Structure of Purine and uridine phosphorylase:
Amino acid sequence: MVEPTQARRPSNRNEFEIAIICALSEEADAVKALFDVDWDLDRPFGRATGDTNIYSTGRIGIHNVVLVHLAGMGKINAASGSARILCSYENVRLGLVVGICGGVPTIKAKKEVEKEVFLGDIVISTGVVQYDLVRKFPNKAVTKDTLEDALSRPNLEIRAFLQKIKGSTDQDRLKNTCRTQLTKLLGKQSFQKCRYPGDDKDILFPPAYRHKHQQPGGCDTCSRCNNDDDDTCDDARDSTCEVLGCVAGLSNELTRRRDTNLGQPPPEPQIYFGRIGSGDWVIKSGRDRDIIAKEHQLLAFEMEGGGVWDNVPTVVIKAVCDYADSHKNKAWQNYAAAVAASCTGAFLQQWPGPNKSLPARPSPGKSLPFP
């Protein structure tokens, strides 16, 4: 690998082939902290006339990367931002949507055993499903999944690369490098807030268990809330589980711990490959999460991948910060953002180097001239 001090500054924007797209400042901060070289410290590369995107440029390993700071969350912001990338960075051939997501706590692929997904684990997309594209009928909602509505498969280069790193040898290398990158990142003073929150903070509630005042008589509105269609009070929506009493009496059943053979906390984040749901609806229902995930065989839910997908060849790399239920909070967001960024650095360590034109091979019978 080229040492950062030996890295040559790109002569222009055409030498950037990797774009990293982040919606939240926490996500972008973690990615930028992994830059081996920050090209903007010398002078920014700028942008094309009419391009309103905000960029940061740097180098991760052997790759020059452009970090795209989206205006906000959601597919519209992601589509708008990613559509402009090629105006300024014409040779980008890979877009990585990096950050946090809501995870499906139990997954089962075909012909595989059931697996548990924990907070802080990583999901890498092999495909993206827009779960919020639905047709409403009187008695049900049906997801639009025709050829016209569905997102295409990743391109051949991405599919081949994902097949490679899913293999045991390369996946072990991916995990080991991710762990090294994460240790390096969390060792920085400015990232102390991103440290592992602890096993005791990884709490999974039953799918039907609502985030509301749990004490009988504590709130008239919440006392009448018995299913997903019933309202909770405004105070409950803005309160923590501790204040509402969600954990009281259930903590022994809810705290999740990994197998002891995975080591002491902080555990090594596990990496899962599969389909990810993308939409502008924030999933905050355990029941809806499980229904949609089962229907489309999803590992997680996020809000930007579907917007980027048709504009730039895309891989989504996100870490689980909640379980996409009504109890979701921000306690794990900083750690998950750091994990996702670390996995991105590990991913790029194995991604093929920049495309370069090679000298033509001599014709048979001809010798190469002496220099």
The chain has a mean pLDDT of 85. The chain is about 25% helix and 20% strand.
